[in-house]
Each structure stands twice: as C-alpha cells, then as structure tokens.
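Re-running the complex after MR caught last week's input typo. The corrected sequence lines follow. Everything else is unchanged.
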Amino acid sequence: MTEEIVVVGGGTGGTVLANRLADRLEPAIESGDAHVTVINDGEYQYYKPAYLYVPFGKKTVEEAKRPLSDLLDRHVELRVDRVTGLDTDAKSVSLEDGDDMAYDHLVMATGATLDPEEVPGLAEGGHHFYGPEGTESLRDELADFEEGHLVLSVIGVPHMCPAAPLEFVFMADDWLRQRGLREDIEITYTYPIQRAHGLQSVADWATPKLADRDINLETFFNAERVDPEEQVLETMEGNELDYDLLVAIPPHTASELVSEAGLGDTWVDVDRATLEAEQAEDVYAIGDVADVPTSKAGSVAHYEAGVVADRIASRVRGQTPTSVYDGKTVCFIETGMDEATFVEFGYGDEPTMREPSKPVHWAKLGYNESYWLTARGLL
Amino acid sequence: MSDTPTPDVEIDSRGATCPGPLMDLIGKVKEVEAGTTIELLTSDEGSKNDVPEWLDEAGHELLTIEAVDDHWAIYVETT
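Corrected-run output:
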C-alpha cells in the first residue's frame, strides 16, 4: 500500500519539505511504497523577500519568481490546482477541478495572505511591499515623491518578515539621502506596542538608530481607520497622523481552509516542537500558517520543513520520529542601501544584536540569488 | 466568594510570546462593544506590564490580574 503524502502549498516550506522527503524516501517512492504530491494554485513560486528591494529600483518582480516544476525533485508530483475543502476525519482534500485526494500524511504550507480590507480606507490610502502589484505601485509612487511626510505604519501583527518594516525605513532614509531629497521628506515609523519591535533586543537596538537617522518613532499606534481623502491615519488610542505617502504593513490572515477544517481560528494550532496539528491526526503545518511563537519568516518555514520531512519519513519507515523544531529563526536586517546585520534565535531567546556591516549586506544580496538552491533542498 | 470578574469574552494566548498576547487583546478590543469584559490568558510574564500600559494609553479599564498556576488571567473592560 502506498503512503500518500500531500503538501498543500508550493512556497518555501512546501518545496523544501517535498524535496527533503524525496531525498529521504527515494527508495520507497521508486518502489511505489510512498508518493509525494505538492498542490499549488499556480505554476510559480515567488521569493517575497525580494519585494523589499523593488520600491528602491534594486530588483524587479519578474526576477523573484521561478516555475515550481524547476524547483521540485523529479520524485515529487506537482499538481496545479486549488484545494477547496479539507476533511481531516476522512483524510481527504477536495480540489477545485472536482477530484478528491486521500492522504495518509498532510502538510499545510499555505502561508499568509494580506487582508487590507480589515482596516477601512487602507486599501485605498495605503501602499505596501508585500506583494508583486503592491511593491510595483509603491516603486512608482516613491520615484515621484520629492517632499512631504512618509509614514511606515505596522498595522497587522503578526506579519510576514518582522524585520522588513524597520528595513524599509532605514533603506528609505539612505536612498532619499543619496538622491538629495531627505531634507524635504519627514519619515515616521509606527508600531502597535510600546516599543519599536516585538523582540525587546531588536527594539533596543533600533530605537537609537531611528533617532540617529532622524526617523520619528510612534509607539502604541494601532491604526483602525485611514482617510484617503484627507490623508490621515486614525488610531484606536485616539490619535491622528497626517501622511503624504503611507506605506503600511496590512493585517494578515490565513486560508479559510484552516478555520473551515477546524484546525484553528486563523492559523493552524500546532505542537511547537513536532508541528503536528492539535486538532487532527496526521496533519502538520509549517511556515506562516503555523501558529508557533516565533517569526513568520522564510527561515522558519525552511527549518520547520526539514523537521516535518524527517518526522514523516520516520513514520513511513515505521520508526519513531525524533526530529523536533526548536524555534530556530534567522533574519537579515538591512540598515541602509549598503549595510546590514542579522539575528539568529530560538524559542524564548532574545537575539544578540551585531553592528551592521557591508559584508553582511553582501551576504544578504548573495542569498537573494542563491535562495533558489534552498527551495531545491540544496542549501 | 470570589471577586473574579465574569468575562463576556475569553482570549487564550497561553504559549504565545510578546507581543502575541497584547496583539490578541488589541484585535479583540477592535471587534467588541464598549462595556465588554475580556479575560486574557497569558503565559508571557511581560503581559503584566504591556497590557496595563496599553490600556492606559487607549483608555480601557484594567479590572484585575490574577496568577493562575503557570499563567496569568488579565481582566479588561472596554470603554
């Protein structure tokens, strides 16, 4: 009997996982004892971290995508379709084309999506760099923006890539200085809690840097309404902030499959070590869709994928799974157009902050190019 | 007899680290009517400071904070 392993989602987590399974289970796959399918609702994978560079003209949206068929091992079946239903009792998924697929092991790797409609006026009044159309639109706005108030408002938490909002303002500051426009453009960064970032050490590191760069910091700032006509942000705390160009981190949400299948209210409730769903048997979640106490970051999806692949491979071989995820997270943080730092931490750890440097920035640019080796399971 | 408020809404943020519990509370406050009593369960000790600070800033009322086994129950009334 063939062990059917179904991976829903062909992002970083889904491809790393499927390729690791193909490596671990190659003999079983070749003998027909195991079968790995990745279901994705499109033919391409998008490398979202590249979108941070698009507004500054340093990357294009087109270079941030690859066909999934180029990324997946030949032992993995790619099915381009949309999962419309999930029955964890019957252990099957329903597809848009009408088929049902049975599974023995299911991995939810459906990521996070933007939900700007949750904040009235945000879709009309705000820009973002979290998707292809958004980041291209922001590039065009920023190119013509020569004076006024640039506001970066973190509205949705949790959000993908927790360092990106700080990176954006540091890069914008540097980029505007290089173009001789900084004196005519005020920059403000807002964050929902009482400090500049969720991690205390990152907040302590960033706050004096924001001050040095003449970037205003507003905390306890939870935008609940945007008035696109008057160009004003209104907050739950009763404050207002005028803007000329608003760059917002929109609220995020997950696929409705999660709540419809009873796997969690928004994100999938999982055991933070095994990444097994708490509400269903033989279901795992990795990447942004998994509710674990660390960042929604590509590195998290990458490391989680390895753990779940090892656990499923053990199960298929009839062995007791022992691989666990310890919360390992690695994030580069750009601090300008030519310097960066990085953080590495696990569950409950505060990262050690290092002084930014050019070599780390170059490493980040290098990784942006070599990321596709990660997706292929090689790096 | 206990002075523990009777909540209208419960948020279970146990296991989440900062700023998870506070953001869960902020999200819920956005949804509910004024006068709603919310119970926030958190295992993150920092919530004992973060939550009252935000309530003060946003003008909602902190009713009480109770230590329960390995977590805290924070009771809030929206205004």
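None of the earlier attempt is carried over here. The CA atoms of residues 83 and 150 of chain A lie 40 Å apart. Residues 298-316 of chain A form the longest helix (19 residues).
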